[in-house]
Amino acid sequence: MLPPVETSPAPKPAARRENRLRALDGLRLIAALMVACYHYGGRDGEVTQAWGTSPKHQFPTLHQLFAYGCLGVQVFFVISGFVICMSGWGRPLRSFFASRASRLLPAYWAAIIIVTAVFALPAVAYKAVAPSDALLNLTMLQQPLGVDRVLGVCWTLWAEVRFYALFALCIVLPGANRRRVILFCAGWTLAAAVAQGVNEPLLNMVLMPEYAPYFIGGVGLYLVHRDRRDAYAWGIVGVSWLIGQHYAVDRLWHAPNPQFFSDRSALGIILVVTFGYVAVAAIALGWLNRANWRWLTVAGALTYPFYLVHEHLGWVAIEAYHRTLHLPSYATFLATVATMLLLAWLLNRFVENRLTPKLRSALAKPRV
Q1: Coil, strand, or helix at residue 15?
Q2: Other CB atoms closer than 10 Å to residue 130's CB: what's the count?
Q3: Which one-letter DSSP state was computed for residue 169?
Q4: Is 151 exposed, middle or buried (0-12, 13-18, 19+ CB in 10 A)?
Q5: pLDDT tens figures, 239-280
Q6: 294 vs 13: CA distance, rounded Å
Q7: What is the pLDDT of residues 313-363, one digit of tens each?
């Protein structure tokens, strides 16, 4: 999951860049709501405890569609590839690092503290992680260190951080240009395939074979945005889509089985993955420049904090609305989404807007 879009120098007129970024904000919100649909009504697990019964019974028809919502993560990764290439182009390493850290960390730290505190309340039936593990979660390194996660969604941030590191070392540090970016995409694609073939844990951790095609596809789409006639860029996008749909089907499809909650079809998975690539391509080509509504900027700012808090705190909200206040399932779903959006707005206004500029300034300031 990527943090809010940040503009940077690019060879496009300012007005056009603003339109494009607002369209990206809208797509980010769609992807976040897809993931929320999955967590609230498209899977079993702890959310069953919140509802009191399986979401299959709460949403007899829609639960089958909600099960595809997990693919919102793949859409996020494609957007991330586009945005990181855009924001890192022509930027020095110190500025790139300061930008990424200041965007990710303030809301993340706040979400860790809030979820830990809420789960520690006696009235909340969900298990809180150990204090030492909660503290380690503040580093974003809990997954490779084998520590319990405070936020279930933070595994996607670990993938994002690894992508940032690869892009910083291979593109930002030596300086971005078309040839270097193309070689980076081609080299990463080949190396990820080799890593998958040899099944070496270290290579898999660094090269992320099952997530790489989405990031690479997004990078390729930024090259398309710079030059829509670039055959190499389109080749990167096409190969990434082919590999990405394979991994999505391989990881998320299974033969129909009453023992499983989900019943996703291979075609449905391919269509959702394709939607992610096509939507970002439409933005890259300027087809959505007319989506210039100001509320999309607000929606984009809320997406990251919403994504961080919606799952675990959503369980608490669902239980309160549905089992305590006895709201119907669909009213509970809408009320929970609205509550998480309100919390995201508070985090954006009182945490991100205050801490992000200060942290960016502190990290970007040169030291002698």
Answers
A1: helix
A2: 11
A3: I
A4: buried
A5: 999 999 999 999 999 878 877 888 899 999 999 999 999 999
A6: 18
A7: 999 999 999 999 999 999 999 999 999 999 999 999 999 999 999 999 999
The per-residue pLDDT for range 140-156, each reduced to its tens digit, is: 999 999 999 999 999 99
- Enumerate residues 6+ apart whose C-beta is below 8 A from 31: 72, 73, 75, 76, 79, 276, 303
Pick from 237, 212, 238: nearest CA to 226? 237
Q: How far apart are CA 151 and CA 293, in angstroms?
A: 32
Inter-residue contact 233 to 227 (CB < 8 Å)? yes
Q: In the chain, where do the E strands start and end?
A: none
Sign for the pseudo-dihedral over CA of 318, 323, 327, 330? positive
Q: How far apart are CA 315 and CA 153, in angstroms?
A: 14
175-218 pLDDT, tens digit each? 999 999 999 999 999 999 999 999 999 999 999 999 999 999 99
Distance separating alpha carbons of residues 174 and 249, to the nearest angstrom: 36
- Please state, in angstroms and rounded to a whole number, the distance separating the CA atoms of residues 215 and 363: 26
107, 308 contact by CB (below 8 A): yes
Contacts of 298 (CB under 8 A, 6+ apart): none
CB 343 within 8 A of CB 309: yes
Max distance between CA atoms of the chain, in angstroms, equals: 64
- pLDDT value at residue 220: 98
Q: What is the mean pLDDT of residues 215-236?
A: 98
> Is pTM beyond 0.90 here?
yes
> Among residues 222, 211, 185, 223, which one has the least CA distance to residue 273?
211
Query: First CA to last CA across the chain, in angstroms?
Result: 35
Q: What is the pLDDT of residue 209?
A: 97
pLDDT at residue number 9: 40
For the chain, how big is the Rg over CA atoms in Å? Answer: 20
The Cα 4–Cα 298 span in angstroms is 10
